[in-house]
Structure prediction request, 330 residues.
Amino acid sequence: MPETLSTPPEGRRPSAWLRWAFGTLADAGVASPRADAEILLAHVLGIARAELRRVAVLDSPLPDDGATEAFAALVARRAAREPLQHLTGAAPFRHLELAVGPGVFVPRPETEEVAQVAIDEARRVVADRGSAVVVDLCTGTGAIALAVATEVPGARVHAVELDQTAHAWARRNVEGVSSAGRPPVVELVRGDARTALRALDGTVDVVVSNPPYVPPDAVPRDAEVAEHDPAVALYGLGPDGLEVPRGITAAAARLLRAGGLYVMEHAEVQDAAARSMVDATPDPAGQAGARAFEPAATRPDLTARPRMVVARRAAESPAGAQGDPPDVTD
Prediction:
């Protein structure tokens, strides 16, 4: 690790400023100090990170003292564990760059795999039927909904968000991706995900959700999450954190057609509980004792951790009847 500088360097040499920022962020416990330092300086200069590396190699002077002051201020905020995405105002998600800030959950790389399952299923349905209806419950920034809408031609995507601030960020992102003069790529609804979109009951091909699921006693360790992600987007209520997910799962049972796919993100310690929750969901239109879903399965994220539950909507069946595990294409 390079020597940490207690004060910013003199002059405007990018290499010196990056060394100082790297040391400062590393001492503050930031997980990726080198990458964060480069991203922040590139943000100040209005250039891509790859271009910054070329500038640093050449050691061309930074444009003026205003740039160094702005960079130093951002490094100080990042060292105080303010999320990097709040400082730059943007978060990458798959091929998208989403607007983010205080009051909305910052999308995580692991959720990209949840989106992939929904995308794969939507593509399969479009190939079979020519179109697909997809619903994203608890959409937050709109990340999953926009990924499906932009990657699956023929998908008609609806997204639901209750929180006013998060809904405003989602609307901003939908408007940013939608083409001028055309309908929005995602139909965004502000409402309770447990009761919204009743006009779509029984017609949806894919329901996907990254709901609040953190148990009340599991306070996140990272200051970026604990102090800056909104509690309403983190804590799933109930002793197990699955009270909100139970409501989302019941909504999915109502919305999905027979054979439709449900995928929901959860914590890695909740895999068995999440499967049991889905398996126990009653069929809202079936006989007493009938289950809404075929037996649920757990899918891993990119780091092989069990992070999502996947199940197919069962057809109305006699009480207690069950089908085969969900057939989900990798």
